[in-house]
Amino acid sequence: MTVQADVDLDLILADIETLVSCESPSDDLDAVARSAEVVAALGERLLGVAPERIVIDGRTHLRWRFGEPTVLLLGHHDTVWPLGSLLRLPFRIEDGVLRGPGCFDMKTGVVMALHAVASLPDRTGVSILITGDEELGSPSSRALIEREARGCAAVFVLEAAAEGGAVKIARKGVSLYRVHVVGLAAHAGLEPERGVNAAVEAAHLLLAVAELGDAAAGTSVTPTLVRAGSTTNTVPAAAEFAVDARVRTVAEQDRVDAALRALPVTLPGADVRVEGGPNRRPMEPESSAGLFAQAVAIAEKAGLTPFDGVAVGGASDGNFTAGLGVPTLDGLGAVGGGAHADDEHVLVAMIPERLLLLQELVAGALTGHGTSAGGRA
User: Fold this and answer.
1) Around Cβ 169, how many Cβ atoms within 10 Å?
2) What is the pLDDT of residues 96-135, one digit of tens each?
3) How many CB atoms lie within 10 A of CB 317?
4) Full strand arrangement of the beta sheet holding 238-247
5) Which among 61, 77, 269, 298 counts the fewest CB atoms within 10 Å?
6) Distance CA 155, CA 321 (A)
7) Model pTM?
8) Which residue from 198, 174, 188, 201 is spatially nearest to 314, judged by alpha carbons?
9) Helix or strand run (H / E) with residue 200
């Protein structure tokens, strides 16, 4: 199978502007629905067919399917940017740099996915899934993503590239917890000894949780949001704190999970309850090795700018697909930087290169070339 290497960059940039100009904060269901309609219209124009609109818990996800899926292109159209961000950070292109809320993470990648598939002379076996809640941890779309990925030979994730244009061959797994402490209220001045101080118990637990990290293994366990007490003159009867754990391996994720659930109680009378657990399994390097080798070979043959494969701390929906054993390569979207920050930007000159890379990867996976063990060719 051959692909069309030539791209209409002006058209691609216009399409990116269209998506960026429709703000889509994850926590605003109406905004996400409006954004989904913009993405749907763009995809229908390019692909000649409307997507399935899949609404789960009020969130709109889009899927284009061309036969039984063999290759999945995965992205999201929601962003972290609140409504009104465009007034302060309008879409613009200056000196070869494209800017605007969500341009890097990851509306450029969405446009690339649609244009790449539109270029294929035969799309049979391709599925495109663009979700609307990735920035929240994909609570409504996870099952949809996993169903779509099962049995595929390859998943290509259009999240933005890492620093210097590197693709993402591994991602840390994420576990999220909330630790609840129940004590006993008492007057802090008259009879504090009758109380069980939930804040003090939480302090002991916070220190114990922080000790679960292992820098050598790449494991971070970070207590984050903390709440305790009701008034300044009352022994706190309740406290709680959140924990964010990031790991490179499933073994480390399981170790941290077991340790959190076995936290010892220090104060007599206090009770501790742990909620949560693994949200995303690690995307380990083995899941991307074959696809990354294919990407490097394509780049060398086509004379593209060389790139590395790197492991990153952040998670994506690629963690879900890699966790199923499906070959997954991430970071194939925009090259630039500043995700979630005011300097979010995309390097325009790299868009045609990365689009060609994506086209060739998809074409190779559809014909069974360049796939790796773990999927169905």
Assistant:
1) 25
2) 999 999 999 999 999 999 999 999 999 999 999 999 999 9
3) 28
4) 220-228, 238-247, 173-182, 271-280
5) 269
6) 7
7) 0.87
8) 174
9) helix 198-210
